[in-house]
Amino acid sequence: MPIIKKHTGLTGEPLRSVPGKFSLSLRNRIALYYTIATAVLLALVFILVFFTVERVVFNHFDEELDREVSEILEKQSHGRSDVWNFDISDDDSHSDEGGDHHHERGDDENRDEDDEEFVQLVSQTGKVIARSANLAGDTLAFQSGGQQKRFRSSTAGRLYVRQVQVPLADSKGKIEGYLLAAVPVRDAVTILGDLKQVLLLSYPAIILTLFILTRVIAGRSIRPVEEVIASAEKITRENLERRIPLPRNQDELYRLSATINALLERLQDAFQREKQFTSDASHELKTPLASLKGTLEVLVRKPREREHYEERIRFCLKELDRMSRLIEQLLVLARYESNGIKAHMESVDPGCHISEAIGRMHPHALQKNIPINFTGLESCMISADPAMLDMIFENILSNAIKYSPSGSTVSVTLSNSTGSVLCSIVDNGIGIPEEKLSRVFERFYRVDESRNSGTGGFGLGLAIVKKLADLQQIAVSVKSRKNQGTSVELRFPKT
Q: Which residue in 115, 87, 444 sits closest to 285, CA to CA?
């Protein structure tokens, strides 16, 4: 079994290949695919070249045979009415009947093939009527039943010849026999054979050379990819700040490296946020737990008055309530991050939901003597999830009351805007410094860097608002100035 190289991922654990599964490297695949494509194309080109040359060569012989046949037909005597009155001799005698007149030359090697032409007359049944003396004891191949002129390659004895077969008809158009003419093509066949041998021998040599060269070129081409892989393998969770060096040429590899670096940026940000989230959640849960533990330890040290027990128990219940609210909000965020929450969009009246949220927040506002004024549209319809909409309004109103001084006012306004409905919730509280506005939607982020939880907040309210608003395609924005209040705007698309 081949040894499988193991690569490490961001966690530092090896990335395992499928056991026993063989795969070619990218360099070899490029070389193989390119070689196969070129081999097919080269084979087609070689075949086309060979048959084109063969066709050109034989066309030349066919033209020569045409001229020979024309000359023979022109020499035909007009004094006789039969079709056999031809002069096909190249010496004093040509007929098979005069056995002493033609020269018997059984050895084809003794023939002088330069400018030789063979002629033969056959009957309709294929019987040889006459032939040229240079055929000696050989005959030209005959195919019966032909009505048209035929060209073909054949043999005469041990000679390769190119021949033509022409039908001969009498005055009434009835075919009485055939005229066959041929020329030797030994040199042409030799040349074509040499050409075929050259093509067959050069083909594998070209393909092998092409594969080697393509593999070398592919190796040099993907070397930057291997450098990217080597750099990426060195990046783990502990050194996410490392980046892949960008190539000098802004080509596809540059885009690949830039894309991977952008991915690493997002991963680093996600890891950092998760790390911060874990730290903040631990801190928020540790504080009330430590307070509860300390309170209970004090209570069990010695007997106390009933009033003291009741006061400490109420304090513990208050801390447990805070922990319950924190856990509930964390679960909401966790379900959103895991895509466990889906918005069930309906056509709703935002004014009704604002009024209900104000009613639920009224006891908290009354404790700080903060009136909540609602003005705007009496009736309008938007597309939203009713439960999520209630949670959004309650979180924003809770923050407005929480960070506003006693005796101040919270105003809620609902108005029409271009293609949307605008809801503004404005308070006169402590405000947010302008340089910190961009972070107010982050989890556990509080403007108070001392992390004082005296206001009872966890820094999750606006993070939940942002997540739920995104699910419903509601645009949310915050405007604020320090010590001058805060305005939260919700822009709902109209139905």
A: 444
Is-contact 238 11, C-beta < 8 A? Answer: no
Note the pLDDT tens digit of each residue in 362-375. 888 888 899 999 99
Residue-wise burial string across 387-401, b where 16 or more C-beta atoms lie within 10 A, e elsewhere: ebbbbbbbbbbbbbb
pLDDT for 380-399, tens place per residue?
888 888 888 888 898 889 88
Taking the C-alpha atoms of 118, 121, 124 and 125 in order, what is their torsion angle to the nearest 10 degrees?
A: -80
pLDDT band at 154 (very low <50, low <70, confident <90, very high): confident
Q: What are phi and psi of 106, to 5 degrees?
A: -70, -25
Helix or strand run (H / E) with residue 465: helix 461-471
CB atoms within 10 A of CB 264: 18
Mean pLDDT (whole number) for 219-232: 82
- Residues in CB range of 170: below 8 A, 6 or more apart: 82, 83, 176
Q: Which tokens hold the place of 443?
A: 């989890």
CB 493 within 8 A of CB 420: yes
How far is residue 102 CA from its own chain's centroid? Answer: 79
Query: How far is residue 451 from each of residues 271, 317, 345, 406, 448, measured CA to CA in Å?
Result: 22, 22, 37, 22, 6
Q: Is 445 helix (H, G, I), strand (E, B) or coil?
A: coil
Short-list 445, 455, 441, 462, CA closest to 402: 455
Question: Rounded CA gap, 182 and 481, in Å?
Answer: 109
